[in-house]
Amino acid sequence: MKLSALLKTTDVLSQTGGDPDITDIVYDSRKAAPGTAFVCLKGYTSDGHKFAASAVEKGASALIISDALDFEAPKDVAVVKVDNTRLALALMSAELFGNPANELKTVAITGTKGKTTTTAMIAEIFEHAGIPTGTIGTLGIVYGGSTYKTDNTTPESYEIQKAMRDMINAGCKAMVIEASSIGLKHHRLAGVTFDVGIFTNFSDDHIGGVEHKDMAEYLYCKSLLFRQVRNAAANCDDPAYKDITKDFRGKLHTFGFSENAQLRAVNDHLLSDGGFIGVHFETEGAKTLSLNVGVPGIFNVYNALAAISAVSFFDIPDQAIIDGLKVAHVKGRVEPVAVPGNYSLLIDYAHNALSMENVLTTLRQYNPHRLITLFGAGGNRPKVRRFEMGESSGRLSDLSVVTEDNSRFEDVMDIIEDIKVGLAKTDGKYVVVPNRKEAIRYCMLNAEDGDIIVLAGKGHEDYQEIKGVKYHMDERELIREIIEEEHLSDE
Asked: Does residue 285 share a domain with residue 138?
Protein backbone atom coordinates (compact mmCIF):
# COMPACT_ATOMS: atom_id res chain seq x y z
CA MET A 1 0.00 0.00 0.00
CA LYS A 2 1.33 3.44 -0.87
CA LEU A 3 2.25 5.68 2.06
CA SER A 4 -0.16 8.29 0.74
CA ALA A 5 -3.02 5.77 1.02
CA LEU A 6 -2.12 5.05 4.64
CA LEU A 7 -2.11 8.79 5.35
CA LYS A 8 -5.49 9.38 3.70
CA THR A 9 -7.23 10.43 6.94
CA THR A 10 -4.17 11.86 8.73
CA ASP A 11 -3.41 15.59 8.86
CA VAL A 12 0.13 15.90 7.47
CA LEU A 13 2.13 19.01 8.38
CA SER A 14 5.03 18.32 6.01
CA GLN A 15 6.44 15.44 3.96
CA THR A 16 9.71 14.70 2.17
CA GLY A 17 11.17 11.64 0.49
CA GLY A 18 8.50 10.46 -1.92
CA ASP A 19 5.64 7.98 -1.62
CA PRO A 20 7.06 4.50 -0.93
CA ASP A 21 5.14 1.23 -0.80
CA ILE A 22 4.47 0.26 2.82
CA THR A 23 3.94 -3.35 3.90
CA ASP A 24 3.60 -2.79 7.66
CA ILE A 25 3.62 -0.17 10.39
CA VAL A 26 5.92 -0.48 13.43
CA TYR A 27 6.53 1.63 16.52
CA ASP A 28 9.32 -0.51 17.97
CA SER A 29 12.53 0.20 16.05
CA ARG A 30 13.69 -3.39 16.61
CA LYS A 31 10.85 -4.53 14.32
CA ALA A 32 11.75 -2.12 11.54
CA ALA A 33 12.52 -3.70 8.15
CA PRO A 34 12.43 -2.73 4.47
CA GLY A 35 8.92 -1.59 3.55
CA THR A 36 7.91 -0.55 7.06
CA ALA A 37 6.77 2.84 8.30
CA PHE A 38 8.27 3.61 11.72
CA VAL A 39 6.04 5.77 13.93
CA CYS A 40 7.94 7.72 16.59
CA LEU A 41 5.80 7.46 19.73
CA LYS A 42 6.62 9.51 22.81
CA GLY A 43 6.12 7.46 25.96
CA TYR A 44 6.48 8.07 29.68
CA THR A 45 10.12 6.95 29.77
CA SER A 46 11.27 6.84 26.15
CA ASP A 47 10.91 8.80 22.92
CA GLY A 48 10.67 6.98 19.59
CA HIS A 49 12.38 9.87 17.83
CA LYS A 50 15.65 8.76 19.47
CA PHE A 51 15.35 5.39 17.72
CA ALA A 52 14.48 6.71 14.26
CA ALA A 53 18.07 6.36 13.02
CA SER A 54 18.11 2.73 14.16
CA ALA A 55 14.86 2.11 12.29
CA VAL A 56 16.37 3.58 9.12
CA GLU A 57 19.44 1.37 9.52
CA LYS A 58 17.13 -1.65 9.60
CA GLY A 59 15.55 -0.52 6.33
CA ALA A 60 12.45 1.47 7.34
CA SER A 61 10.99 3.17 4.27
CA ALA A 62 9.18 5.97 6.14
CA LEU A 63 9.35 7.85 9.43
CA ILE A 64 6.31 9.43 11.07
CA ILE A 65 7.47 12.18 13.42
CA SER A 66 6.13 15.04 15.52
CA ASP A 67 9.50 16.48 16.65
CA ALA A 68 12.71 17.29 14.82
CA LEU A 69 15.11 14.41 14.21
CA ASP A 70 18.70 14.50 15.47
CA PHE A 71 20.05 13.16 12.17
CA GLU A 72 19.44 13.72 8.46
CA ALA A 73 17.32 10.96 6.95
CA PRO A 74 18.39 9.53 3.57
CA LYS A 75 16.61 11.08 0.59
CA ASP A 76 14.86 7.80 -0.27
CA VAL A 77 13.24 7.60 3.20
CA ALA A 78 9.93 9.42 3.47
CA VAL A 79 9.72 11.69 6.52
CA VAL A 80 6.19 12.71 7.49
CA LYS A 81 5.60 15.28 10.19
CA VAL A 82 2.29 15.25 12.06
CA ASP A 83 1.02 16.97 15.17
CA ASN A 84 0.44 13.75 17.16
CA THR A 85 2.11 10.47 16.23
CA ARG A 86 -0.20 8.37 18.40
CA LEU A 87 -3.22 9.69 16.53
CA ALA A 88 -1.39 9.10 13.24
CA LEU A 89 -0.61 5.50 14.25
CA ALA A 90 -4.30 4.87 14.93
CA LEU A 91 -5.53 6.38 11.67
CA MET A 92 -2.82 4.72 9.58
CA SER A 93 -3.44 1.34 11.23
CA ALA A 94 -7.15 1.56 10.41
CA GLU A 95 -6.24 2.12 6.74
CA LEU A 96 -3.59 -0.64 6.73
CA PHE A 97 -6.09 -3.24 7.93
CA GLY A 98 -8.92 -2.02 5.70
CA ASN A 99 -11.04 -0.30 8.38
CA PRO A 100 -12.20 -3.61 9.90
CA ALA A 101 -14.60 -1.93 12.34
CA ASN A 102 -16.90 -1.24 9.38
CA GLU A 103 -17.38 -5.00 8.95
CA LEU A 104 -18.27 -5.71 12.59
CA LYS A 105 -20.92 -4.84 15.13
CA THR A 106 -18.85 -2.81 17.61
CA VAL A 107 -19.42 -1.91 21.26
CA ALA A 108 -17.05 0.08 23.48
CA ILE A 109 -17.46 0.28 27.25
CA THR A 110 -15.96 2.90 29.53
CA GLY A 111 -16.27 3.42 33.28
CA THR A 112 -14.25 2.90 36.44
CA LYS A 113 -15.70 -0.50 37.31
CA GLY A 114 -17.62 -3.19 35.50
CA LYS A 115 -15.98 -2.96 32.07
CA THR A 116 -14.65 -6.53 32.03
CA THR A 117 -17.85 -8.14 33.34
CA THR A 118 -20.08 -6.10 31.03
CA THR A 119 -17.86 -7.02 28.07
CA ALA A 120 -18.24 -10.72 28.91
CA MET A 121 -22.01 -10.36 29.26
CA ILE A 122 -22.43 -8.62 25.90
CA ALA A 123 -20.23 -11.18 24.16
CA GLU A 124 -22.23 -14.06 25.67
CA ILE A 125 -25.53 -12.51 24.56
CA PHE A 126 -24.19 -12.02 21.02
CA GLU A 127 -22.97 -15.62 20.94
CA HIS A 128 -26.40 -16.88 22.06
CA ALA A 129 -27.90 -14.85 19.23
CA GLY A 130 -25.65 -16.67 16.76
CA ILE A 131 -23.19 -13.78 16.36
CA PRO A 132 -19.55 -14.95 16.84
CA THR A 133 -17.84 -12.28 18.93
CA GLY A 134 -14.33 -11.22 19.85
CA THR A 135 -13.40 -9.14 22.88
CA ILE A 136 -10.49 -6.86 23.79
CA GLY A 137 -9.77 -5.91 27.38
CA THR A 138 -8.26 -6.85 30.71
CA LEU A 139 -8.02 -10.54 29.83
CA GLY A 140 -6.39 -9.82 26.46
CA ILE A 141 -7.67 -10.32 22.92
CA VAL A 142 -10.17 -13.19 22.96
CA TYR A 143 -11.91 -14.86 20.02
CA GLY A 144 -12.48 -18.34 18.63
CA GLY A 145 -11.69 -19.98 21.95
CA SER A 146 -8.17 -18.49 22.10
CA THR A 147 -6.71 -15.70 24.25
CA TYR A 148 -3.82 -13.48 23.19
CA LYS A 149 -2.25 -11.55 26.05
CA THR A 150 -1.84 -7.77 25.81
CA ASP A 151 0.14 -5.27 27.87
CA ASN A 152 -2.80 -2.95 28.53
CA THR A 153 -6.55 -3.14 29.06
CA THR A 154 -6.92 -1.12 25.85
CA PRO A 155 -3.95 -2.11 23.66
CA GLU A 156 -2.12 0.15 21.22
CA SER A 157 -4.19 1.14 18.19
CA TYR A 158 -2.22 -1.05 15.77
CA GLU A 159 -2.99 -4.12 17.91
CA ILE A 160 -6.69 -3.20 18.06
CA GLN A 161 -6.99 -2.80 14.28
CA LYS A 162 -5.03 -5.99 13.62
CA ALA A 163 -7.14 -7.90 16.16
CA MET A 164 -10.36 -6.81 14.48
CA ARG A 165 -9.07 -7.96 11.08
CA ASP A 166 -7.98 -11.29 12.61
CA MET A 167 -11.42 -11.66 14.24
CA ILE A 168 -13.12 -11.13 10.88
CA ASN A 169 -10.83 -13.69 9.25
CA ALA A 170 -11.79 -16.13 12.02
CA GLY A 171 -15.51 -15.62 11.34
CA CYS A 172 -16.40 -13.04 14.01
CA LYS A 173 -19.29 -10.70 13.34
CA ALA A 174 -18.98 -8.49 16.46
CA MET A 175 -16.30 -6.99 18.70
CA VAL A 176 -16.63 -5.65 22.25
CA ILE A 177 -13.80 -3.59 23.76
CA GLU A 178 -12.99 -2.09 27.14
CA ALA A 179 -12.23 1.59 26.52
CA SER A 180 -9.92 2.66 29.32
CA SER A 181 -9.37 6.32 30.11
CA ILE A 182 -5.65 5.91 29.33
CA GLY A 183 -6.47 4.25 26.02
CA LEU A 184 -8.77 7.12 25.10
CA LYS A 185 -6.23 9.71 26.26
CA HIS A 186 -3.60 8.20 23.97
CA HIS A 187 -5.85 7.87 20.89
CA ARG A 188 -5.71 4.06 20.87
CA LEU A 189 -9.36 3.92 19.79
CA ALA A 190 -9.11 6.67 17.17
CA GLY A 191 -10.12 5.79 13.65
CA VAL A 192 -13.17 3.81 14.80
CA THR A 193 -16.77 4.97 14.98
CA PHE A 194 -18.39 2.46 17.32
CA ASP A 195 -21.96 1.32 16.87
CA VAL A 196 -22.53 1.63 20.63
CA GLY A 197 -20.76 3.35 23.53
CA ILE A 198 -21.60 2.41 27.13
CA PHE A 199 -20.88 4.26 30.41
CA THR A 200 -20.96 2.09 33.56
CA ASN A 201 -19.90 4.31 36.49
CA PHE A 202 -17.29 6.81 37.69
CA SER A 203 -15.21 6.88 40.87
CA ASP A 204 -11.73 7.78 42.12
CA ASP A 205 -9.07 5.72 40.32
CA HIS A 206 -5.97 6.09 38.13
CA ILE A 207 -5.05 9.47 39.62
CA GLY A 208 -1.43 10.53 39.91
CA GLY A 209 1.87 9.27 38.56
CA VAL A 210 1.85 8.66 34.82
CA GLU A 211 -1.94 8.28 34.61
CA HIS A 212 -4.26 11.28 35.20
CA LYS A 213 -3.31 14.47 37.01
CA ASP A 214 -6.74 14.84 38.64
CA MET A 215 -10.36 13.68 38.57
CA ALA A 216 -11.29 16.32 36.02
CA GLU A 217 -8.82 14.96 33.48
CA TYR A 218 -9.88 11.38 34.28
CA LEU A 219 -13.53 12.26 33.60
CA TYR A 220 -12.66 14.21 30.46
CA CYS A 221 -10.70 11.28 29.01
CA LYS A 222 -13.64 8.93 29.58
CA SER A 223 -15.94 11.40 27.88
CA LEU A 224 -13.84 11.22 24.70
CA LEU A 225 -15.46 7.90 23.79
CA PHE A 226 -18.81 9.58 23.21
CA ARG A 227 -17.42 11.68 20.37
CA GLN A 228 -16.99 8.53 18.28
CA VAL A 229 -20.13 6.44 18.79
CA ARG A 230 -23.37 6.19 16.80
CA ASN A 231 -25.49 5.16 19.80
CA ALA A 232 -24.95 5.54 23.54
CA ALA A 233 -26.33 4.25 26.84
CA ALA A 234 -25.39 5.34 30.35
CA ASN A 235 -26.00 4.49 34.00
CA CYS A 236 -28.16 7.45 35.01
CA ASP A 237 -27.88 6.54 38.72
CA ASP A 238 -24.30 7.80 38.55
CA PRO A 239 -24.28 11.64 38.70
CA ALA A 240 -21.25 11.80 36.40
CA TYR A 241 -23.18 10.38 33.44
CA LYS A 242 -24.20 13.77 32.06
CA ASP A 243 -20.64 15.11 32.02
CA ILE A 244 -19.25 11.86 30.60
CA THR A 245 -21.75 11.82 27.72
CA LYS A 246 -21.99 15.58 27.09
CA ASP A 247 -20.26 15.31 23.71
CA PHE A 248 -22.66 12.68 22.38
CA ARG A 249 -24.94 14.23 19.80
CA GLY A 250 -27.57 11.47 19.47
CA LYS A 251 -30.39 10.30 21.76
CA LEU A 252 -28.93 8.91 24.97
CA HIS A 253 -30.51 5.76 26.40
CA THR A 254 -30.34 5.40 30.18
CA PHE A 255 -30.40 2.46 32.58
CA GLY A 256 -30.45 2.05 36.35
CA PHE A 257 -32.75 1.56 39.33
CA SER A 258 -34.15 5.09 39.38
CA GLU A 259 -37.56 6.03 38.01
CA ASN A 260 -35.83 8.25 35.44
CA ALA A 261 -34.06 5.31 33.79
CA GLN A 262 -35.46 4.18 30.46
CA LEU A 263 -34.42 0.62 31.30
CA ARG A 264 -35.17 0.01 35.00
CA ALA A 265 -34.25 -2.87 37.30
CA VAL A 266 -36.88 -4.00 39.82
CA ASN A 267 -37.40 -6.90 42.23
CA ASP A 268 -33.69 -7.62 42.55
CA HIS A 269 -32.42 -10.21 45.00
CA LEU A 270 -29.54 -12.62 45.54
CA LEU A 271 -30.05 -16.09 44.12
CA SER A 272 -28.42 -19.33 45.28
CA ASP A 273 -29.84 -22.60 44.06
CA GLY A 274 -28.19 -26.00 43.54
CA GLY A 275 -24.71 -24.63 42.91
CA PHE A 276 -25.94 -21.57 40.96
CA ILE A 277 -24.89 -18.31 42.59
CA GLY A 278 -26.00 -15.03 41.12
CA VAL A 279 -28.73 -12.42 41.16
CA HIS A 280 -32.32 -12.25 39.97
CA PHE A 281 -33.99 -9.10 38.72
CA GLU A 282 -36.63 -7.93 36.32
CA THR A 283 -36.68 -4.98 33.95
CA GLU A 284 -39.29 -2.37 33.16
CA GLY A 285 -39.43 0.41 30.61
CA ALA A 286 -37.53 -0.17 27.39
CA LYS A 287 -37.69 -3.96 27.91
CA THR A 288 -39.72 -6.27 30.13
CA LEU A 289 -37.57 -9.24 31.14
CA SER A 290 -37.14 -11.65 34.04
CA LEU A 291 -33.48 -12.56 34.46
CA ASN A 292 -31.13 -14.75 36.46
CA VAL A 293 -27.54 -13.53 36.16
CA GLY A 294 -24.82 -16.05 36.92
CA VAL A 295 -22.42 -13.59 38.54
CA PRO A 296 -22.72 -12.99 42.31
CA GLY A 297 -23.36 -9.58 43.86
CA ILE A 298 -26.21 -7.10 43.49
CA PHE A 299 -23.81 -4.63 41.84
CA ASN A 300 -23.79 -6.96 38.83
CA VAL A 301 -27.37 -5.89 38.10
CA TYR A 302 -25.84 -2.66 36.77
CA ASN A 303 -23.45 -4.59 34.54
CA ALA A 304 -26.33 -6.69 33.23
CA LEU A 305 -28.41 -3.55 32.55
CA ALA A 306 -25.45 -2.10 30.63
CA ALA A 307 -25.20 -5.27 28.56
CA ILE A 308 -28.95 -5.32 27.82
CA SER A 309 -28.79 -1.65 26.80
CA ALA A 310 -25.85 -2.31 24.48
CA VAL A 311 -27.40 -5.21 22.59
CA SER A 312 -30.77 -3.45 22.37
CA PHE A 313 -29.34 -1.31 19.56
CA PHE A 314 -29.12 -4.48 17.47
CA ASP A 315 -31.77 -7.01 16.47
CA ILE A 316 -31.15 -9.41 19.37
CA PRO A 317 -33.91 -11.78 20.58
CA ASP A 318 -34.92 -11.48 24.22
CA GLN A 319 -34.24 -15.19 24.73
CA ALA A 320 -30.59 -14.67 23.77
CA ILE A 321 -30.37 -11.97 26.46
CA ILE A 322 -31.96 -14.25 29.07
CA ASP A 323 -29.81 -17.27 28.18
CA GLY A 324 -26.61 -15.28 27.74
CA LEU A 325 -26.80 -13.48 31.07
CA LYS A 326 -27.50 -16.72 32.93
CA VAL A 327 -24.17 -18.26 31.92
CA ALA A 328 -21.97 -15.18 31.35
CA HIS A 329 -18.87 -14.97 33.52
CA VAL A 330 -15.39 -13.53 33.45
CA LYS A 331 -12.64 -16.14 33.45
CA GLY A 332 -11.02 -16.19 36.86
CA ARG A 333 -13.40 -13.75 38.54
CA VAL A 334 -15.84 -15.59 40.82
CA GLU A 335 -15.97 -18.04 37.92
CA PRO A 336 -18.29 -20.99 38.61
CA VAL A 337 -17.05 -24.49 37.84
CA ALA A 338 -19.60 -27.28 37.46
CA VAL A 339 -19.07 -30.02 40.04
CA PRO A 340 -21.10 -33.00 41.25
CA GLY A 341 -22.86 -32.30 44.52
CA ASN A 342 -25.02 -29.58 46.00
CA TYR A 343 -22.30 -27.02 46.65
CA SER A 344 -20.71 -24.18 44.69
CA LEU A 345 -17.09 -24.08 43.52
CA LEU A 346 -15.69 -20.76 42.31
CA ILE A 347 -12.31 -19.70 40.91
CA ASP A 348 -11.20 -16.14 41.65
CA TYR A 349 -8.07 -14.06 41.05
CA ALA A 350 -8.16 -12.47 44.54
CA HIS A 351 -4.48 -12.42 45.50
CA ASN A 352 -4.30 -9.66 48.10
CA ALA A 353 -6.25 -8.77 51.22
CA LEU A 354 -8.45 -6.12 49.58
CA SER A 355 -9.61 -8.28 46.68
CA MET A 356 -10.11 -11.23 49.04
CA GLU A 357 -12.14 -9.03 51.38
CA ASN A 358 -14.36 -7.89 48.50
CA VAL A 359 -15.03 -11.39 47.18
CA LEU A 360 -15.64 -13.02 50.56
CA THR A 361 -17.87 -10.19 51.75
CA THR A 362 -19.98 -10.54 48.60
CA LEU A 363 -20.27 -14.31 49.01
CA ARG A 364 -21.09 -13.98 52.72
CA GLN A 365 -24.31 -12.24 51.67
CA TYR A 366 -25.52 -15.58 50.24
CA ASN A 367 -25.55 -17.14 53.74
CA PRO A 368 -23.72 -20.31 52.71
CA HIS A 369 -23.70 -23.38 54.93
CA ARG A 370 -19.93 -22.80 55.06
CA LEU A 371 -17.69 -20.39 53.19
CA ILE A 372 -14.41 -22.20 52.47
CA THR A 373 -11.45 -20.29 51.05
CA LEU A 374 -8.44 -22.03 49.50
CA PHE A 375 -5.48 -19.72 48.96
CA GLY A 376 -1.72 -19.27 49.11
CA ALA A 377 0.50 -16.25 48.54
CA GLY A 378 3.12 -15.24 46.01
CA GLY A 379 6.78 -15.67 46.80
CA ASN A 380 9.29 -12.81 46.62
CA ARG A 381 6.57 -10.32 47.48
CA PRO A 382 6.08 -8.25 50.67
CA LYS A 383 5.37 -10.49 53.65
CA VAL A 384 2.73 -8.10 54.93
CA ARG A 385 0.45 -9.26 52.10
CA ARG A 386 0.53 -12.78 53.53
CA PHE A 387 -0.30 -11.62 57.05
CA GLU A 388 -3.20 -9.54 55.71
CA MET A 389 -4.57 -12.31 53.50
CA GLY A 390 -4.44 -14.77 56.39
CA GLU A 391 -6.28 -12.31 58.60
CA SER A 392 -8.95 -11.56 55.98
CA SER A 393 -9.66 -15.20 55.26
CA GLY A 394 -9.61 -16.16 58.94
CA ARG A 395 -12.15 -13.47 59.72
CA LEU A 396 -14.52 -14.03 56.79
CA SER A 397 -14.23 -17.77 56.06
CA ASP A 398 -15.62 -20.69 58.03
CA LEU A 399 -12.57 -22.66 56.93
CA SER A 400 -9.31 -21.58 55.31
CA VAL A 401 -7.38 -24.16 53.28
CA VAL A 402 -3.82 -22.85 53.07
CA THR A 403 -1.76 -24.04 50.12
CA GLU A 404 0.75 -22.97 47.46
CA ASP A 405 0.52 -20.20 44.87
CA ASN A 406 3.40 -18.86 42.74
CA SER A 407 6.13 -19.54 45.29
CA ARG A 408 8.80 -18.27 42.89
CA PHE A 409 12.17 -18.51 44.66
CA GLU A 410 10.81 -18.99 48.18
CA ASP A 411 10.02 -22.17 50.06
CA VAL A 412 6.28 -22.89 50.10
CA MET A 413 6.29 -23.79 53.80
CA ASP A 414 7.93 -20.46 54.71
CA ILE A 415 5.14 -18.61 52.89
CA ILE A 416 2.51 -20.71 54.63
CA GLU A 417 4.04 -19.92 58.03
CA ASP A 418 3.66 -16.21 57.24
CA ILE A 419 0.00 -16.71 56.28
CA LYS A 420 -0.55 -18.51 59.59
CA VAL A 421 0.66 -15.38 61.42
CA GLY A 422 -2.37 -13.52 60.01
CA LEU A 423 -4.72 -16.43 60.66
CA ALA A 424 -3.60 -16.50 64.31
CA LYS A 425 -5.05 -13.00 64.77
CA THR A 426 -8.53 -14.49 64.20
CA ASP A 427 -10.44 -17.43 65.57
CA GLY A 428 -10.89 -18.82 62.05
CA LYS A 429 -10.37 -22.54 61.49
CA TYR A 430 -7.78 -23.61 58.96
CA VAL A 431 -5.98 -26.61 57.52
CA VAL A 432 -2.68 -26.70 55.64
CA VAL A 433 -2.41 -28.75 52.43
CA PRO A 434 0.80 -27.58 50.67
CA ASN A 435 0.12 -29.15 47.25
CA ARG A 436 -2.53 -27.11 45.43
CA LYS A 437 -4.17 -30.02 43.60
CA GLU A 438 -4.40 -31.97 46.85
CA ALA A 439 -5.82 -28.91 48.57
CA ILE A 440 -8.54 -28.68 45.93
CA ARG A 441 -9.18 -32.40 46.35
CA TYR A 442 -9.52 -31.89 50.11
CA CYS A 443 -12.14 -29.16 49.56
CA MET A 444 -14.15 -31.22 47.11
CA LEU A 445 -14.12 -34.45 49.12
CA ASN A 446 -15.13 -32.63 52.30
CA ALA A 447 -17.76 -30.35 50.75
CA GLU A 448 -21.17 -30.27 52.40
CA ASP A 449 -24.54 -29.28 50.95
CA GLY A 450 -24.83 -25.50 50.66
CA ASP A 451 -21.10 -24.80 50.92
CA ILE A 452 -19.43 -22.13 48.80
CA ILE A 453 -15.80 -22.96 48.07
CA VAL A 454 -13.52 -20.27 46.63
CA LEU A 455 -10.19 -21.16 45.02
CA ALA A 456 -8.45 -17.81 45.38
CA GLY A 457 -5.27 -16.45 43.85
CA LYS A 458 -4.84 -18.04 40.43
CA GLY A 459 -7.96 -16.88 38.59
CA HIS A 460 -7.35 -16.79 34.84
CA GLU A 461 -3.71 -17.87 35.20
CA ASP A 462 -2.86 -21.26 33.72
CA TYR A 463 0.59 -21.67 35.25
CA GLN A 464 2.44 -22.02 38.52
CA GLU A 465 5.81 -20.31 38.93
CA ILE A 466 8.44 -22.22 40.94
CA LYS A 467 12.17 -21.46 41.05
CA GLY A 468 11.97 -19.24 37.97
CA VAL A 469 10.07 -21.78 35.85
CA LYS A 470 6.41 -21.48 34.85
CA TYR A 471 4.73 -24.89 34.88
CA HIS A 472 1.33 -25.42 33.25
CA MET A 473 -1.42 -25.56 35.85
CA ASP A 474 -5.06 -24.75 35.17
CA GLU A 475 -7.39 -25.19 38.12
CA ARG A 476 -10.26 -26.10 35.81
CA GLU A 477 -8.22 -29.06 34.56
CA LEU A 478 -7.28 -30.05 38.10
CA ILE A 479 -10.95 -30.10 39.09
CA ARG A 480 -11.82 -32.35 36.12
CA GLU A 481 -8.96 -34.68 37.01
CA ILE A 482 -10.11 -34.94 40.62
CA ILE A 483 -13.69 -35.72 39.53
CA GLU A 484 -12.38 -38.55 37.33
CA GLU A 485 -9.83 -39.87 39.85
CA GLU A 486 -12.33 -39.92 42.70
CA HIS A 487 -15.18 -41.23 40.50
CA LEU A 488 -17.35 -38.35 41.67
CA SER A 489 -20.79 -37.99 40.11
CA ASP A 490 -24.23 -36.59 40.84
CA GLU A 491 -25.58 -40.06 41.55
From this structure: yes
